[in-house]
Amino acid sequence: MRIDVLTLFPKMFESPFAESIVARARTAGQLDLAVHDLREWATDRHRVVDDAPYGGGAGMVLKPEPLTRAIRETKGNAGYVVLMTAQGRLFDQPAAHRLARVPHLVLVCGHYEGVDERVIERDVDEELSIGDFVLTGGELAAMVVVDAVTRLVPGVIEPESLAQESH
Predict the structure, then answer these.
(1) C-alpha span between 120 and 58 (Å, rounded)
(2) Which of 130, 149, 128 is nearest to 17 (CA)?
């Protein structure tokens, strides 16, 4: 399985993904995981990725241009794009099972006041939330999804162990 994470804060992922089951799955070649800095797709010299919302409103949103470039380049022809957002459908164990069957998952970490709606309409396959609360960004939610999905990738955990877990 391949998982790409698009974020403004890639260093947040270093420690959680260097330990435990995720690290073992990566070492064993069962998980190809890459974390990308969204600023890599900004074209201005200051690498700005935020802007006022299209149509007005309070706060800032992720700019559509760099985010669209990041998503399209990262997903290629087969990636399934999930935006981590407080407004999304609740991530649960059935969703984890479903996503574990996706060969290439692209997780987009929302930030600021969200993502420009045009990007969601054109390039996002699904919006997910990990609960009825607001986080500073989608990074922690993406970590939860990566952990839950990785456990379900065939061969990462013994089937007997998975069968005995409660959820």
Answers:
(1) 19
(2) 149
Which one, of 21, 45, 16, lies nearest residue 31 by Cα? 21
- Could you tell me if 105 and 4 are in contact, meaning their C-beta atoms sit under 8 angstroms apart? yes
Residue in 32, 22, 36, 10 with CA at minimum distance from that of residue 144: 22
Model confidence at 116, in pLDDT bands (50, 70, 90)? confident
Residue 149 · residue 17 · CB < 8 Å: no
pLDDT in tens, 62-113: 888 999 999 999 999 999 999 999 999 999 999 999 999 999 999 999 887 7
| φ, ψ (nearest 5 deg) of residue 66 | -65, -35
Q: Helical H runs in the chain?
A: 14-17, 20-27, 64-75, 93-100, 117-123, 139-152, 159-164
Indicate whether 32 pLDDT > 80. yes
Domains with residue ranges and CATH for the chain: 2-157 (3.40.1280.10)
**Does an H or E element contain 88, and which?**
strand 80-90
